Amino acid sequence: MAASVKMAGVACVLVVGVLWLSAGQSAACDGHPCPTPAGKCPINTVKLGVCADVLDGLIHASTPPKEPCCPLIAGLADLDAAVCVCLAINANLLGLNLDVPVDLSLLLNYCGCRLPAGFKCA
């Protein structure tokens, strides 16, 4: 008898948890399923601060070295690389005043990636 009461208690907690989570998602996304991000940044974006010199060199028409910036995003899919650089820009890790769409595209192209069509760095 005690085991069945314990199981009923566990089931109740699970049901309440599921209801609470689904209510939170509905409220956060106006009753619609919350979208999941299409891209991800598998690297620590703080490391992308080393890209400031590269981007500054590209903006001022010199030929900056690709090390150590480009190897950080070299193995990533284009969308993931764009997300990582966008996160670094939004966190102001590069310490530069940027024209985000143009400079994001410059840096990605320089490092062998492409800015995906329609990608917005928000």
Question: Can you walk through the features of this model?
Answer:
- This protein has 122 residues and is mostly helical.
- The protein has two domains: 1-35; 45-110, no CATH class.
- Helix content is 52%, strand content 0%.
- It contains five helices and no strands.
- It has helices at 2-28, 52-59, 69-73, 78-90, 100-110.
- α2 (52-59) packs across α5 and α4 packs across α5.
- It starts with a helix and ends in a 12-residue tail after the last helix.
- Mean pLDDT is 73; it is low at 1-30 and 32-37.
Radius of gyration: 22 Å
Number of helices: 5
Q: How many structural units, i.e. domains?
A: 2
What's the overall average pLDDT, rounded?
73
Signal peptide: 1-28
Domain Bifunctional inhibitor/plant lipid transfer protein/seed storage helical: 41-121
Protein name: Bifunctional inhibitor/plant lipid transfer protein/seed storage helical domain-containing protein
Pfam family, one: Hydrophob_seed
Layout of strands and helices, then pairs:
Layout: H1 2-28, H2 52-59, H3 69-73, H4 78-90, H5 100-110
Pfam family, one: Hydrophob_seed
InterPro entries: Bifun_inhib/LTP/seed_sf, Bifunc_inhib/LTP/seed_store, Hydrophob_seed_dom, Plant_LTP/defense-related
Protein name: Bifunctional inhibitor/plant lipid transfer protein/seed storage helical domain-containing protein
